[in-house]
Design a protein that fits this description.
Deoxyribonuclease I, Chain A, 6-stranded mixed beta sheet, globular, single chain
């Protein structure tokens, strides 16, 4: 007989690539001209509001079927600025989430950044900062990519560190750009080993206050078996709890009618603990409900995108959210 979920204290932690969440204004410091009323995308206030409504609806339902609660922590990618985050968490469907956020402008040329949205009633922020990434292109020029967001805090009294990632794209080919994602992974590992030099993240018998619980989540633009994840991150005391979700018929995004799982969540081994009063890993899943899918046509079953090329579709995002559930007895 299964135990009712109400018998547990539960928290949803997720990640969602929001696919070009731009406001309608033209920022002269970034390449956002397409996402303006006069730009190629004809990005009007009406389209922007429709996007906010759809995204807020999706976010409110991530993990809800399992816990009856909205996410406590949600890493997001492809947000332009603080305005779009303010507008997003102010949507009626997210009002009950008591949400705040952490965001820093990154050097990305398009101005798309990462951020962490959190329920301020259960998560206390202790420290946050952007980790600047140093990558050089093959032509010797600096690659202006997204920062990694580092947040140290307490989730329901338990120390937690979260890294929100959006690694360099595969636009010029997966092999040609592989070194970029490996470089980002190595720089992330360097920071992890700085803040957790004693590797408490692999210890299962620490007290709740001495434990080092690290969650690495994001859009890695790599699948779980790729070098950056498999060979660089995993050996550092992590478990890719989303990796088993990757199937030939399932993933977080689809490219050329093949599923990928670029959106992943890795947890430190310390979250597989059996410590009294500690949170522990329970479940991982993709929120790929039919509401987020194309209902018909050539791309039936794939994520319902806002745009396909320059054609406006009015969907949610080209990615599905991924999430984990942490429990406390």
């Amino acid at each position: 007989m299964s135990i009712p979920t109400q018998a547990f204290e539960q928290y949803v932690i997720g990640f969602y690539n929001l696919e070009n969440l731009f406001d309608v204004g033209n920022d002269k410091f970034i390449l956002d001209d397409d996402f303006t009323p006069d730009g190629k995308k004809e990005w009007t206030q009406n389209r922007y509001q429709k996007k906010l409504d759809k995204l807020s609806d999706a976010i409110s339902k991530i993990g809800f079927d399992y816990t009856g609660k909205m996410p406590s922590l949600l890493g997001v990618a492809e947000v332009e600025n603080k305005k779009v985050l303010n507008d997003l968490i102010s949507q009626p469907k997210l009002k009950a989430g008591n949400y705040d956020y952490i965001h820093y402008n990154s050097p990305d040329e398009r101005g798309i950044d990462v951020a962490l949205i959190y329920d301020a009633t259960v998560f206390k922020v202790i420290h946050s900062e952007p980790l600047r990434i140093d990558i050089t292109n093959l032509d010797g020029e600096p690659d202006r990519t997204r920062d990694i967001l580092y947040v140290k805090g307490e989730l329901s009294g338990m120390p937690v560190v979260v890294y929100v990632n959006h690694w360099p794209s595969r636009r010029d080919g997966p092999e040609t750009t592989n070194y970029k994602r490996v470089t980002v992974a190595q720089q992330l590992v360097n920071h992890i080993n700085t803040i957790d030099a004693d590797q408490n993240r692999i210890k299962l018998d620490q007290s709740i206050n001495d434990s080092s619980n690290i969650i690495v989540l994001g859009d890695f633009n790599d699948d779980p078996h790729n070098e950056s994840i498999q060979n660089v991150l995993l050996p550092q005391g992590f478990d890719n709890v989303t990796a088993p979700l990757k199937k030939s018929h399932r993933g977080s995004l689809s490219h050329d009618f093949k599923w990928n799982l670029f959106d992943q969540i890795l947890i430190s081994k310390s979250l597989h603990n059996d410590i009294n009063e500690a949170l522990y890993f329970h479940k991982a899943d993709i929120f790929d409900d039919i509401m987020l899918r194309q209902w018909s046509g050539k791309y039936r079953g794939q994520p319902a995108r806002t745009f396909v090329g320059r054609k406006y579709k009015g969907g949610y995002s080209d990615h599905f959210p991924v999430f984990i559930i942490l429990r406390r007895n």
